[in-house]
Amino acid sequence: MEKIKVTFLGTGDAFGHGGRLQPCVMIQTVSRRFLVDCGATALIAMNRFGIDPNSIEMILLSHLHGDHFGGLPFLLLDAQLHSKRRSPLTIAGPEGTDARLTGAMEVFFPGSSKIQQKFPIHIIELAPQRSWTYNEITVHPFEVCHPSGDTALALRLEIGGKTIAFTGDTEWCEALVPAATKADLLIAEAYFYEKQIKYHLNYQTLKNHLNSLQPGKLLITHMSQDMLDHLGRIEEEAAEDGLQIEI
Known about the structure:
With 247 residues, the chain is an alpha/beta fold. It has helices spanning 42-48, 66-69, 72-81, 97-108, 176-180, 203-213, 225-229, and strands at 5-10, 24-28, 33-36, 58-60, 89-94, 121-126, 132-134, 137-144, 152-159, 162-166, 185-189, 218-221, 237-238, 244-246. It has seven helices and 14 strands.
């Protein structure tokens, strides 16, 4: 069973609390390197941590808020103008990804969505409860509760005999049970420590469900300042920008 390397390129919330970068996780196998989420700071993170953007062959998006997909216009322009990418790039996200990416390109850099790319881009729109396979990676998307203009997803990935689950942003909902149960690695939002706010998980709610989810390893991410202030009170491990683990 092959080792999978997971690198956290951004573990903060939308507002940069604690100086953290926005959500972005890189997953690397012997033959693949891809991202899950691509916040607006993703290209900064890749440059900071020595990741060649051209080495990323696929990007998975949990939902279409700027702190989860807003890095794509910058990454695509860098690929065209600076990195001189030639290899294909696959972007897979919720239904609506194609139109929302075009809109973001036009808002940030008018005319950029109409430029003839020098490399192939494949946009895949994921439907909840319908698995999608990219080479040896199988993606199981589950609809969660986080209004973002289009469907928000939790993602369960099967790679090389291992399972990695991402809650994305969501309040607790039953879809998280099949998405996360007994994953080798669960990467979970804990936006606040115990404060209940709509459409987001807090640490106490997550902790109350851990006995039933039974992940092999849990890493908490997408933390507000409130959650960062409470890290000394939790038993579980919190991710930080630049953290690398193997599963």
